Amino acid sequence: QELEKAFKTHYKTEYAISVNSATSALHCAMMSLGLEIGDEVITSPYTMSATSTSILMVGGIPVFADIEEETYCLDPKSVEYNITENTKAICAVNILGHPANLIDLKKIAEKYKLILIEDNSQAPDALHHNSYTGTIGDLGIFSFNRHKVMQSGEGGMLITKNKSFYEKAAL
């Protein structure tokens, strides 16, 4: 509870849920969206398998968009190109300390009424337009795995400002 409180304070968010791994946090995030079988989530092919398998675990379909050469993060143009009537969310991966182009991804999400999730396991406290990564999307995921920036051997955190996502993820 102290860790959750510290995250809420540091990231200026309403809700935080600590879990045993970032994989579990991703799973909770996907569950909180209420995805149904066949719903699509656009994500990066350049990341750990947990990002896409968390989508599969709830019956969703991961759709891989291209990445940018400079950051290895999602290319917003490719994301928009891959949106279909079945798309429900975008799961950006802030990887290798680089923020994805979150402002453009947020605009795309708003334009198409999609949820933006940030898998922020590899870029905690990176700044994007004066905001911390993990706080720009609707849900932010953090990892405490032994080989990540914030380490405790294992663990994860989900943050959000959305009460409904929080309640569903906590269940």
Task: Describe it.
The protein is an alpha/beta fold and 171 residues long. It has six helices and nine strands, in the order αβαβαβαβαβββββα. It has helices at 2-10, 22-32, 49-57, 76-81, 102-111, 163-170; strands at residues 15-19, 40-43, 61-64, 87-93, 115-119, 127-128, 131-132, 139-143, 156-160.
Fraction in beta strands: 15-25%
Structural class per helix/strand content?
A: alpha/beta
Terminal CA distance:
16 Å
Helical amount: 25-40%
Mean pLDDT: 94
Radius of gyration: 14 Å
Largest sheet: 7 strands, mixed
> What's the number of helices?
6
**Which segments are poorly predicted (pLDDT under 50) over 5 or more consecutive residues?**
none
Tally the beta strands: 9
Strand order of the largest sheet: 1-9-8-5-4-2-3
What is the H/E string? HEHEHEHEHEEEEEH
**Any idea what the shape is?**
globular
Summarize, please.
With 171 residues, this protein is an alpha/beta fold.
What descriptive keywords fit this protein?
two-stranded antiparallel sheet, alpha/beta, 7-stranded mixed β-sheet, globular, 171 residues, 31% helix
Indicate the topology:
Blueprint: H1 2-10, E1 15-19, H2 22-32, E2 40-43, H3 49-57, E3 61-64, H4 76-81, E4 87-93, H5 102-111, E5 115-119, E6 127-128, E7 131-132, E8 139-143, E9 156-160, H6 163-170
Parallel strand pairs: 2-3, 2-4, 4-5, 5-8
Antiparallel strand pairs: 1-9, 6-7, 8-9
Helix pairs in contact: 2-3, 2-6
